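queue> pop job 88
queue> type: inverse folding (structure -> sequence)
queue> payload:
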């Protein structure tokens, strides 16, 4: 019998950028430094106003031979994180897709470790890992808060051994650091991708949808990414609380007013009108919110 060398799965690393010029070279270099070899690199940019695209284009020209394939996608207007991520996934040709924000970093053995776990969990579709939280600026307290959140989330995720149990827990809170996840492309596509109605939070609605549909998220107990928290992080922006509220309204409270009001909210340009609409949604779902909060409190004991 002839010995046939089995090609390892193609993995698509998607670098998701928007005004990422300050840190994107670190992200690109971390993709280049992967010990796993069968990788394509896709950069998807959401109409950056700085020179992110120029930096990425020049870097790709110089480093394209490292990858099986490279692609740089741009868009003519700013559409939000969810839409930008979806465009990257739609361009991917790999069996597995590893998105990474244009200011975060992959550790050198990130893809190798994930592929190692996938060989062990051969039915896996979605995996996530621990993450190192780092960053500059005035958000030391915020980084400490995120570390506590992540440690608590990891413990909750690991304790739920079925998709049904994870679904119930995701309805309480997100348990996955966005940059730490890897996706099987066929499973991602079967679920319709990220919800573009929620423009600034792509991952949390997806995990609710995935676990509701029977997918179990597998946790890898290693820090495979470095997650940056600083002055310009989405989580520290004024838009984030509104985005999180919209996730609650659509996926947790199932507010019937959501579909009537969502198109009236400019999620990328928060102003007084948008806040008023969001407050209407908040107060109209007060009974559901009180139940949700009480369940969250009970889950801590």
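queue> result:
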């Amino acid at each position: 019998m002839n010995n046939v060398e089995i090609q390892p799965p193609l993995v698509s690393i998607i670098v998701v950028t928007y005004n990422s010029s300050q840190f994107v070279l670190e992200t690109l270099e971390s993709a280049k430094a992967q010990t796993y070899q069968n990788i394509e690199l896709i950069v998807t940019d959401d109409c950056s106003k700085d020179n992110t695209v120029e930096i990425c284009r020049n870097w790709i020209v110089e480093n394209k031979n490292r990858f099986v394939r490279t692609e740089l996608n741009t868009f003519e207007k700013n559409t939000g994180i969810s839409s930008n991520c979806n465009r990257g996934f739609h361009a991917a040709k790999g069996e597995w897709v590893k998105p990474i924000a244009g200011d975060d970093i992959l550790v050198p053995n990130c893809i190798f470790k994930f592929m190692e776990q996938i060989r062990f969990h051969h039915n896996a579709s979605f995996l996530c890992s621990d993450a190192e939280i780092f960053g500059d600026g005035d958000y030391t307290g915020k980084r400490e808060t995120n570390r506590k959140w992540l440690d608590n989330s990891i413990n909750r995720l690991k304790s739920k051994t079925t998709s049904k149990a994870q679904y119930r827990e995701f309805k309480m809170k997100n348990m996955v650091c966005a940059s730490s996840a890897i996706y099987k492309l066929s499973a991602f596509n079967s679920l319709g991708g990220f919800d573009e109605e929620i423009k600034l939070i792509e991952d949390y609605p997806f995990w609710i949808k995935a676990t509701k549909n029977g997918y179990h998220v597998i946790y890898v107990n290693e820090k495979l990414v470095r997650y940056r928290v600083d002055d310009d992080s989405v989580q520290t922006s004024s838009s984030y609380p509104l985005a999180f509220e919209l996730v609650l309204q659509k996926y947790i409270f199932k507010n019937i007013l959501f579909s009537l009001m969502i198109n009236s909210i400019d999620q990328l340009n928060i102003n007084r009108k948008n806040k008023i609409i969001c407050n209407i949604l908040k107060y109209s779902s007060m009974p559901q919110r009180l139940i949700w909060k009480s369940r969250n409190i009970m889950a801590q004991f």
